[in-house]
Amino acid sequence: MDHTDALTRYIGNFVDELASSGLSDVVISPGSRSTPLAMTMTEHPAINQWVIIDERSAAFFALGIAKKQQRPVAIVCTSGTAAANYFPAIVEAYYSRVPLIVLTADRPHELRDVGAPQSIGQIKLYGDYPKWFHEMALPEGDNKMLEYARSKASRAVNTAQEGNAGPVHLNFPLREPLIPDFTLDNLWGKREDAHAYYPVTSGARRLDSKQISDLRNKFSSKKRGLIVCGPQTDGEFAAAVTELAASLGVPVLADPLSQIRSGLHQKDLVIEGYDAFLRNNEIRKELKPDYIIRFGAMPVSKAYLFYINEHANVPQYVVESEAGYREPAGNETGFIYADAKLFCRDLVETGKLNEPDSEWLETWQEMNRLAKKHLNNTGEQSAVTEGEATRALLEVIPEAASLYVGNSMAVRDLDSFFMTTPKHLTILANRGANGIDGMVSSGLGAATDGEPVTLLLGDLSFFHDMNGLLAAKHYQLNITILIINNNGGGIFSFLPQANYENHFEALFGTPLDIEFKQAIEMYGGTYSNPSSEAELKNALEASYEHQGLSVIEVKTDRTANMEWHKNIWKNIEQEVLDSRE
């Protein structure tokens, strides 16, 4: 068997096994050394191909697809620094537990470390971030090697999504010539049945009856409990956790990414405004709980971090679906490894857990009511503020839409102004590493399934990934992007760096002083710049009727925005404190 035949069958069996094991999408960046992978992926009838030129954008685009569809996505690139440009998205995938299958082409061994062009060290290029790394064997066409190729493809798909999901990395040394021969018979190496090479059957983790009983006794002996929900993806979790809260008679502090603030489940115990009133030290002291049950990662709110730091001696239990030690406060913590919704349901099924402390629950609810009064009624402004823009978006966003939110101020404003709603919304974000890079590409990746997606982000995040807009033009993806443009890094105005005026603008404020309109039109998008809340709502509603890319830019002032936010927080704190006298 000659080289081309062996190459074609080896890569063909590998790609076919990816599909047989459940892969349906691949994001390809162009290059020469990756030709066998790229062309074979494109030929396969069961795999959707997305071609994104910039590897950094491509990896975040794949991350968005995988996050929205909750299944593995492959990325393919050539050798050299092309592979290095994947790194930020791989870091994010690791920390946010998103399954990515990273396929990097490489020079064969004889061309490594000898000064050959476009050759870098790609063995374990991404360090410990991949769940699994494998250097693929050089292509051969005998049956044993075709089975080997299939076994690694199937393992890659399984490993990426088993347990805590994450990235896996396979590195392919490939010799020239690189063009496959698609005229070969039995190109995909079809077997009599089409099951995966490594079919895996697994179930959700669940505590046994004794473990549930032991935890029930711990919670039943205390009345002032607190449930805290960080980012979640399970659509059934909200109903299960709110039912548990009702059984315990405790409030639920719901992060905006918890999927609890929207939907048709009961929400009378859901506390959305906790970030506002927990900013006050006296209030934090008054609200000392007997125990805390947290589901998933820490919430966005920094005020909540202050709260648990000050109550470090309170028993805390963190429920994780598989494993992990996500406890940044460093408090003594009991970890419960179980499927979150099953854990909630199993506890509820043991019967009423205790006689709730009605005053405890009512205190949280009253403070939340006072906070929401101010957050929902922020007064008449001469221009749209950042919080009002977020609130307006949430009022008009369509039912069953997805909202992808950027980091820094965008996710914090969502935390403040996203009130409970019967709408069913899916809230997505890159909160693994919390970076501003790749946000445009991630949002566009989430839009590939055809459902409406809105991306809310700041001007620096938009600028950082502006070339990601090419995917919207190339594939006619439907997305609304709402840019909150405060001409720089608005979040730094709330941090101690703002006190150092000599360095602040150059190092932290970093104003761009550019107009986005021309760039948006270059990528075939529509652009609007509303100056009032009514105009903003009209622009958003129009964007949801538009096919393709719609960008709405709200321009704000960083200093005025900081003062506006601080004034709201001050009024909330004062009214809550007055109500306690």
Automatic annotation (TrEMBL):
Its EC number is 2.2.1.9. Binds 1 thiamine pyrophosphate per subunit. It holds the Pfam family TPP_enzyme_M_2. Pathway: Quinol/quinone metabolism; menaquinone biosynthesis; Quinol/quinone metabolism; 1,4-dihydroxy-2-naphthoate biosynthesis; 1,4-dihydroxy-2-naphthoate from chorismate: step 2/7. Residues 219-405 form the Menaquinone biosynthesis protein MenD middle domain. Residues 14-121 form the Thiamine pyrophosphate enzyme N-terminal TPP-binding domain. Its cofactor is thiamine diphosphate; Mg(2+); Mn(2+). GO terms for molecular function: 2-succinyl-5-enolpyruvyl-6-hydroxy-3-cyclohexene-1-carboxylic-acid synthase activity. It catalyses: isochorismate + 2-oxoglutarate + H(+) = 5-enolpyruvoyl-6-hydroxy-2-succinyl-cyclohex-3-ene-1-carboxylate + CO2. It is an enzyme of class 2 (transferase). SUPFAM superfamilies: DHS-like NAD/FAD-binding domain, Thiamin diphosphate-binding fold (THDP-binding). Keywords: Magnesium, Manganese, Menaquinone biosynthesis, Metal-binding, Thiamine pyrophosphate, Transferase. Residues 440-554 form the Thiamine pyrophosphate enzyme TPP-binding domain. InterPro entries: DHS-like_NAD/FAD-binding_dom (IPR029035), MenaQ_synth_MenD (IPR004433), MenD_middle (IPR032264), THDP-binding (IPR029061), Thiamin_PyroP_enz_TPP-bd_dom (IPR012001), TPP_enzyme_TPP-bd (IPR011766). Homodimer. Catalyzes the thiamine diphosphate-dependent decarboxylation of 2-oxoglutarate and the subsequent addition of the resulting succinic semialdehyde-thiamine pyrophosphate anion to isochorismate to yield 2-succinyl-5-enolpyruvyl-6-hydroxy-3-cyclohexene-1-carboxylate (SEPHCHC). PANTHER family: 2-SUCCINYL-5-ENOLPYRUVYL-6-HYDROXY-3-CYCLOHEXENE-1-CARBOXYLATE SYNTHASE, PROTEIN PHYLLO, CHLOROPLASTIC. Belongs to the TPP enzyme family. MenD subfamily. This is 2-succinyl-5-enolpyruvyl-6-hydroxy-3-cyclohexene-1-carboxylate synthase. It comes from Virgibacillus kekensis. The lineage of its organism: Bacteria, Bacillati, Bacillota, Bacilli, Bacillales.
